[in-house]
Amino acid sequence: MNYDVVVVGAGPVGSTAARYAAKHGAKVLLVEEHSSIGSPVGCTGLLSTRAVAECDLRPSDEFVFNSVRGAFVHAPDGQSLPIDAKQAKAYVVSRKSFDRTLATLAVEAGVELSLRTKAVGLEKTGLEKAGLKAETETGRKESTKEGRKKDPFVKLKVLRNGKPETINAGVVIGADGVKSRIARYAGLGMPERVLPGVQVEAPYASEDSDFVELFPGSQAPGFFAWTVPLNERISRIGLAVEPKLLGQGETPVSCLQKFLDSNPHVKARYGGGMLDFVVGGIPIGPPEKTCTDGVLVVGDAAGQAKPTSGGGVYPGALAAKIAGRIAAEAALEGNTGSGRLSEYDRLRRKALGKELDIGMKVHDHIGKLEDRQLNELIASLNTPSILETITEYGDMDHPSVVLKKLVLSGNSLRLMKAFGTFVRTCF
To answer: Which of 353, 374, 284, 397 is nearest to 53 (CA)?
Structure first.
């Protein structure tokens, strides 16, 4: 089994990487350890309109339950900051259907798909056998008398339906999530942090099903809680936390139960029980290197989720397109050392680096604020002129844009005092 590119993990990011590798002429295999695409689910299922477009899809009833145009941000003291974009900014989706749609596109592009196939090891063999030395960081290849490599550079060890097999590849792309085996096997770094999260799908009488609700503060230490409406009667209710900020004996599950039981706004609307239960992790803070000889990692495996919102599909899909193209070109050139593949690191930093860096600073700053400080900050934002700026420039995928506009606007001395000095350090 010889392939130019093998992608491990058939989520949205893996399917997109595989599709783009195939589009650039590579023979591609996409492997998924589970027996079906899109299961188990470990995501809120709220995707920005840009995230769906970045996956080369249009919204469809096949995977979209609801569209969202804004958010109510609830301060710990109960005050609400309404943000209304007046048009759809995000979709509440079925991740199972969404993931399967993208996997189908990959197969239609010529990608081979193998389910129940679990990566269990990785061995690099090609360069030595072919008499090639590793590339320099500048991408210059030093060769011996044998010239181009004869064998695939990477041997991926898998269990297919429980039976051991070896798959030969020019490049392996790890899109295997927050606990990436491929990153570990290849000796690449892991994301800086992982925020554990938990969510239920439950009866909930939404104030307005066109809006999500966000609850920053001590109810979800270091991050926030949320409600995401599927319709007027059912919502996804969850939270994620910074583990280091949890009190003794606290867990994400206990925080969610306390939130459901004690938050007055939520308690009045929550109907009790649950229709679904999801746990997962949000990886934030990419490692310095996301490639090495014969291997790239992308998406959650590379810590590419947005630190401000936790969303990973938009940045992951953007990086996946780069990874798929670079992997295909390198494999077809027979030049799959780290020097050639480092172009992926350079391009994904150019596309995502600034926004993820600023997002991490915002995440850390907001996460450290006490409830009293959050109340003051949200009150400072709750003026017509500032809300108009947020409405015009607010962007789930590029929050730095509205932050910069708020700082430069000078609309509120209280806002500048509470937040302005911090934001200036981001730019």
So the answer is: 397
pLDDT in tens, 387-417: 888 888 777 788 778 777 776 665 555 555 5
Query: How confident is the model over 82-106, as pLDDT tens digits?
Result: 999 989 999 999 999 999 999 999 9
CA distances from 158 to 107, 251, 297, 331 (A): 20, 34, 17, 21
C-alpha–C-alpha distance, residues 344 and 328, integer Å: 12
Backbone CA torsion sign across 13, 14, 18, 21: positive
Report, in angstroms and rounded to the nearest whole number, the Rg of the chain calculated over CA atoms. 23
- Sign of the torsion formed by the C-alpha atoms of 185, 191, 196 and 201: negative
Angle (CA) 22 23 25, round 5°? 65
Residue 119, strand partner residues: 158
Instruction: Assess if CATH 3.40.109.10 describes domain 2-43+97-192+287-352.
Output: no
For residues 20 and 325, the answer to whether their CB atoms sit within 8 Å is yes
Burial class (CB within 10 angstroms; exposed 0-12, middle 13-18, buried 19+) of 86: exposed
